[in-house]
Design brief:
Shape: globular
CATH class of the largest domain: Mainly Alpha
Number of helices: 14
GO biological process, one term: lipid homeostasis
Largest sheet: none
GO molecular function, one term: fatty acid binding
Domain Acyl-CoA oxidase C-terminal: 158-293
Radius of gyration: 23 Å
CATH architecture of the largest domain: Up-down Bundle
Strand content: under 5%
CATH topology of the largest domain: Butyryl-CoA Dehydrogenase, subunit A, domain 3
Number of domains: 2
CATH superfamily of the largest domain: Butyryl-CoA Dehydrogenase, subunit A, domain 3
Family: Belongs to the acyl-CoA oxidase family.
Order of helices and strands: HHHHHHHHHHHHHH
Structural class: mainly alpha
Domain Acyl-CoA oxidase C-alpha1: 3-102
Length: 325
């Protein structure tokens, strides 16, 4: 719901742009896209994984199994509950910030630019590069360019992350069985790593279920679009743990840079398809009540934007995904 409002608003409201030209839609602003598109990919991943959890539940009930003994289902549901809650909080906060307050960042940028208005553009860019640039140590592993852009590479990466953390189970077993250490103290000493393992497991399952859902999509156009979002989700998972992968020499600095570039390309290329995806969620307008999203609400205590937003008819003309999400 929050994404629907924020994305519709971003595709209709215009602010800033080239001098002496029409202002651009705020979805064209890089930071707006970078903050909203990953959340949309996560929403899709959680949708398909929740369906997978529902399928497991139906199978266990149909076979008469005791749900309390279904370890796979319990682990999956517990992981999804925590993961979806955390992501929901982050998503709503980003959506709230993306529908207002961006002028603060613009003003800070303008003030910073005034300090260098006498310098050539090259000197300004060089100053920025020198202040934030650093050289990453290259590991002995190397990956081809095509490898990083492949979904199979992303799946292998998240699987490696999870399997490596599983070694902590052996560490706890060693402490308990060999050193006769109290189980609670052994477990508590590894709690940070166990929490990381739980999250890595949830990431792996969600990416796998997302990829399986894409492969089973009957419509070719929808499958192509969903594959892009699946790549975005997988790339984000690897990118956010890039320090861990570099530390364990799974990635080279070159591969890490390629992953970052791929993430930027996917974010920007999917911004125009976001309206198709949120339309497929089929959220009734009666549940939106958001003038900033182009949907009037007589009970709203704030007025609609002075600048006209996109008409409902214009949005409905966009091609929707073949299946409801």
């Amino acid at each position: 719901l929050g994404l629907t409002i924020a994305i519709r608003y971003s595709h209709s409201w215009r602010q800033f742009g080239p001098k002496a030209k029409e202002e651009v839609k705020i979805i064209e602003h890089q930071m707006q896209t970078l903050r909203l598109m990953p959340h949309l990919a996560i929403a899709l991943a959680l949708t398909f994984t929740s369906r997978y959890a529902g399928t497991l539940l139906e199978e266990d009930v149909f076979q008469g199994k005791e749900l309390v003994r279904s370890r796979l289902l319990q682990v999956l549901v517990a992981g999804l509950k925590a993961y979806s809650t955390w992501e929901n909080i982050r998503c709503l906060q980003d959506c709230r910030e993306c529908t207002g307050g961006m002028i603060v960042g613009w003003e800070l940028l303008a003030q910073y630019a005034k300090q260098y208005e006498e310098e050539p553009l090259f000197d300004l860019l060089q100053n920025w590069a020198e202040s934030v640039g650093d050289k990453l140590r290259t590991s002995f592993l190397a990956f081809n360019t095509d490898t990083v852009y492949n979904l199979a590479f992303l799946l292998k990466a998240v699987k490696f992350h999870e399997q490596f953390l599983w070694s902590l189970v052996a560490r706890i077993y060693y402490k308990v069985m060999t050193k006769k250490e109290d189980f609670f103290h052994a477990w508590n000493s590894c709690l940070y790593h166990l929490a990381s393992l739980s999250l890595a497991h949830t990431h792996r399952v969600t990416l796998e279920q997302f990829s399986l859902a894409v492969k089973s999509c009957p419509d070719q156009d929808d499958q192509t679009l969903l594959m892009k979002f699946c790549l975005l989700y997988g790339t984000k998972l690897v990118f956010q743990e890039r320090a861990w992968y570099l530390e364990h020499k799974y990635l080279t600095s070159v591969a890490s840079t390629r992953i970052r570039n791929q993430l930027l390309d996917l974010w920007y290329s999917l911004k125009d398809d976001a309206l198709r995806v949120i339309a497929a969620f089929n959220i009734p307008h009666t549940n939106l009540h958001a003038p900033i999203a182009g949907i009037s609400n007589p009970r709203a205590f704030y007025p609609a934007p002075l600048q006209p937003v996109a008409r409902e008819g214009a949005l409905s003309q966009l091609p929707k995904l073949g299946a409801k999400l």
